[in-house]
């Protein structure tokens, strides 16, 4: 009898679980993935960064090769450093929409800066090269923007023009602030409704991986450009040092030739020269010591700058890892909590249906049998009563 009950119990559980949609176990994490259009925005922004870096660096290097002016060379280095650092800040924002809007504004600001703004003369006769590259990058970005929101393109373009006119880039440092908050106000969007999700765990980890890869790729180049910019503005001129050494070498060769032709006169001349040139040589020695000391100080400053950049990079990587670990821990706790809540609801529903099944399968037939038995007994008694009366 127990074996039959056990078999019935297992069969009922299997039927209920397979046939009742109310008992489906759904383990929802409560995390919304990024919409498809926002994922496409993120992919496009990251792809555009590669095009931006390549074109800016090519144009800056061409301007530098075709110019001997130290200010122009300095401006090409500052263009590469500040433009690429600002693009990293605009693209690697938490919200793909914010990244798209801010990158669009930045490309327009850079084009306006070189064409008609404060930087319209920073590259002299080669200014047109910077204008062409900036306009090309802006146009490329705008053509793709149309695919994400053709209906609102004109409205967003009007905002970009208005914002750039109000907040232009003022110098080669490219100092600016994010335009996303102003864009939300322009479109009358609540800040709390602007960003509803940061994506699932794989999407967040992919975003962090992209950031680390971009930092690892760009940081060595930016540090190298900063070192070149520092050396360019130092007081050491390699060409002047080379010319001085060449002049000393030529003068020494002429003295050797003259001494070979007239030894006695050269001996007297050497004594006079030693007496006359002693103060000059002493001054030259002091100047050389001062320059070497200055070079040592500048080298130490350069080493300190590189060390600070490395420490800042390590600190940023550590912060990103800590933030990712905190997010993963919170997501895991939320997932476990939701799983146990859903599992508890499922078990309660299962027990309820099992009790109903017992009532239907066992007690209903038993009650029906008792009722039928009583009816049959009553009818039998009536028949016997009729027969006895007959």
Structural descriptors:
single chain, 390 residues, mainly alpha, 11 helices, 0% strand, disordered N terminus
Quick structural summary:
By secondary structure, this protein is mainly alpha-helical.
Please write out the topology:
Elements: H1 2-19, H2 36-65, H3 70-91, H4 96-115, H5 127-148, H6 153-166, H7 180-186, H8 191-194, H9 201-232, H10 238-261, H11 263-389
Helix pairs in contact: 1-11, 2-3, 2-4, 2-5, 3-4, 3-9, 4-5, 4-6, 9-11, 10-11
Protein name: Methyl-accepting chemotaxis protein, putative
Transmembrane segments: 350-373
Keywords: Membrane, Transmembrane, Transmembrane helix
Element-level helix/strand string: HHHHHHHHHHH
Shape: elongated
Poorly predicted segments: 1-30
Q: What fraction strand?
A: under 5%
Residue share in helices?
A: over 70%
Give me the number of helical elements: 11
Strand tally: 0
Q: What would you call the structural class?
A: mainly alpha
- Distance separating the two termini: 47 Å
- Overall mean confidence score, pLDDT: 75
The main pleated sheet reads as: none
Radius of gyration: 42 Å
